[in-house]
């Protein structure tokens, strides 16, 4: 199954029809996702992430620039972030999840200090257990809307697929700007709606919204609008690369797995009735994400912002 398979809107429509035979998609699209629902999503989806995503604790997309899925790609983002570290840096990860990223960085950069915050106690407990012997790393409960750190504490702040969950990007960016030292960097690997999202067909927009809602994102951010907010906050956009094709091998893997769930309608409904709904709704995102990327409704970006 090559990338071109996902460029046809008619094929997307067929898959959306399959989804609508199992789920009430209008109800999903109209759901309001708040903090408690985000926490519940990650609690319920933990089994799925362990079984079909990453046994090592990654909860982000693998980057496979060669076009072939390999789970070593889950380390690619942190390898790239590591190149921006200096000796004796103070580093903060937002939405650290199970600690996969910060544990890797702390273990390979012994002279720097790393801090990770998250709102999922289940994930934090896992992160603390797995990193209890890493002396330059601390995980704590924390909300990136109100960072519990002094001004100009960090040389670098980073996040992987976590600030998509905010409805207040201006608040989050101001907090990150506040805790960064002058010249400090905010590095993110994140999904966005494309700048021309509002001009797309209703089918594509609904598909993108379904992806967002089933992954506990209330409203996706338009990349152009988001970058303007970052600039108005006092950041310089040092880098903005669309690296969507690098996550396609991972997305095609999810798509193949999700197709199996939707193969038999009655069985699909039975599973939905007995399993945590947040867990099963991930199949919607798995089925649709490659279409949304290839039809340019959403993108995956590597961004570096520098505090002026």
Describe the protein's architecture and organization.
Helix content is 46%, strand content 18%. The protein is globular. The chain starts with 8 loop residues before the first helix and ends with a strand. The model has no long low-confidence stretch (mean pLDDT 96). By secondary structure, the protein is of the alpha/beta class. It has one domain: Rossmann fold (3-Layer(aba) Sandwich), CATH 3.40.50.150. Strands 3-2-1-4-5-7-6 form a seven-stranded mixed sheet, sandwiched between helices.
Descriptive keywords:
alpha/beta, 308 residues, 7 strands
Could you tell me the CATH topology label. Rossmann fold
User: Could you say which structural class the secondary elements and strand pairing correspond to?
Assistant: alpha/beta
* Bulk shape: globular
The CATH architecture can be given as 3-Layer(aba) Sandwich
Global Rg = 19 Å
CATH superfamily: Vaccinia Virus protein VP39
Secondary-structure element series? HHHHHEHEHEEHEHHEHHHE
User: Can you tell me the residue ranges where pLDDT is under 50 for at least 5 consecutive residues?
Assistant: none
Largest sheet: 7 strands, mixed
Number of DSSP E strands: 7
The strand line-up of the biggest sheet is: 3-2-1-4-5-7-6
How are the elements arranged and paired?
Layout (H helix, E strand, L loop, with lengths): L8 H12 L4 H5 L5 H10 L1 H8 L22 H7 L7 E5 L5 H9 L4 E6 L2 H10 L6 E5 L12 E7 L8 H11 E14 L8 H13 L8 H11 L1 E8 L1 H18 L3 H10 L2 H18 L3 E10 L1
Parallel strand pairs: 1-2, 1-4, 2-3, 4-5
Antiparallel strand pairs: 5-7, 6-7
Helix pairs in contact: 1-13, 5-6, 8-10, 9-13, 11-13
């Amino acid at each position: 199954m090559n990338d071109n398979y996902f460029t046809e809107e008619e094929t997307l429509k067929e898959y959306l029809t399959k989804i609508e035979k199992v789920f009430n998609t209008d109800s999903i699209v109209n759901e309001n996702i708040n903090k408690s629902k985000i926490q519940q999503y990650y609690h319920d989806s933990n089994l799925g992430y362990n079984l079909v995503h990453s046994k090592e604790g990654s909860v982000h997309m693998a980057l496979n620039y060669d076009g072939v899925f390999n789970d070593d790609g889950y380390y690619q983002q942190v390898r790239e972030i590591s190149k921006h570290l200096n000796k004796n840096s103070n580093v903060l990860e937002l939405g650290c999840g199970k600690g996969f990223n910060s544990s890797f960085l702390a273990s390979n950069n012994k002279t720097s200090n790393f801090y990770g915050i998250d709102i999922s106690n289940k994930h934090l407990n896992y992160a603390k257990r797995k990193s209890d012997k890493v002396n330059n790393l601390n995980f704590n409960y924390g909300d990136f809307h109100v960072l519990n750190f002094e001004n100009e504490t960090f040389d670098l702040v980073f996040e992987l697929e976590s600030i998509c969950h905010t409805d207040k990007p201006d608040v989050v960016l101001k907090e990150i700007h506040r805790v960064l030292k002058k010249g400090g960097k905010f590095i993110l690997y994140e999904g966005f709606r494309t700048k021309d999202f509002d001009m797309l067909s209703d089918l594509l927009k609904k598909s993108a919204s379904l992806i967002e809602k089933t992954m506990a994102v209330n409203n996706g951010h338009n990349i152009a609008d988001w970058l303007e907010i970052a600039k108005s906050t006092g950041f310089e956009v040092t880098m903005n690369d669309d690296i969507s094709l690098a996550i396609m091998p991972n997305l095609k893997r999810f798509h193949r797995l999700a197709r199996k769930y939707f193969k038999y309608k009655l069985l699909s409904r039975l599973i939905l009735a007995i399993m945590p709904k947040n867990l099963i709704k991930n199949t919607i995102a798995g089925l649709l994400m490659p279409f949304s990327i290839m039809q340019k409704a959403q993108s995956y970006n590597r961004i570096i912002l520098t505090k002026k």
